[in-house]
Amino acid sequence: MASPRGVVRVHVAGVTVTFQAEGQATMHECMALKDCAEQALAEGCNVFHVDLRRCTYMDSTFMGTLLFLARAAKKAGGAFAVVSPSACCQRLLHELVLDKLFPAVEAEEIAAGAWTELDTGPGETQRFNMHVVRAHQELAALGGPVGEKFQRVVQCFERDLQTHRS
User: Fold this and answer.
1) Which domain holds residue 18?
2) What predicted TM-score, i.e. pTM, was given to this entire model?
């Protein structure tokens, strides 16, 4: 039986963009999240919050995308934080040492009617594949034992992409 896809929502208030991941946050939700964040940056937003209280799982592509968001916010002079991470998300962030990079804050949940659900439907395959590689490059850039593991993953992805181009 296939796992149910996750849901990603967005709420914008001033320069702060809050995303909420519900269910399983995987590679399938990443492009919509990244595209929305890039649009928000272009419009002058530079503070990103990712509410993980309803998130039951995050894959490595999603966590690499969070690294992208954190670095983009910092580059734009803003900030990044995870909001009310579930126990599962806390454990996953700790395993990849991301809990040291991402401040975690507790906050009241934004009202249900204030969110806009992002379209996480299938996109253009080549662009999707490149994002998966970039998300893992973000994780590889962490260095240390975690970064080394992801460097090997990146090398496999890059070989696979090269094979499909030939």
Assistant:
1) 7-121
2) 0.91
Which of 44, 50, 41, 39 has the alpha carbon at shortest distance from 81?
50
Under DSSP, the state recorded for 29 is: H
Which pair of structure tokens corresponds to residue 88? Answer: 């599962």
User: Within a domain: residue 157?
Assistant: no
Domain CATH number, residue 65: 3.30.750.24
* Residue 16 contacts residue 49 (beta carbons within 8 Å): yes
CB 51 within 8 A of CB 18: yes
Is 57 part of any domain?
yes
| pLDDT one-digit tens code per residue, 1-29 | 444 679 999 999 999 999 999 999 999 99
Mean predicted confidence (pLDDT) in 105-133 = 90
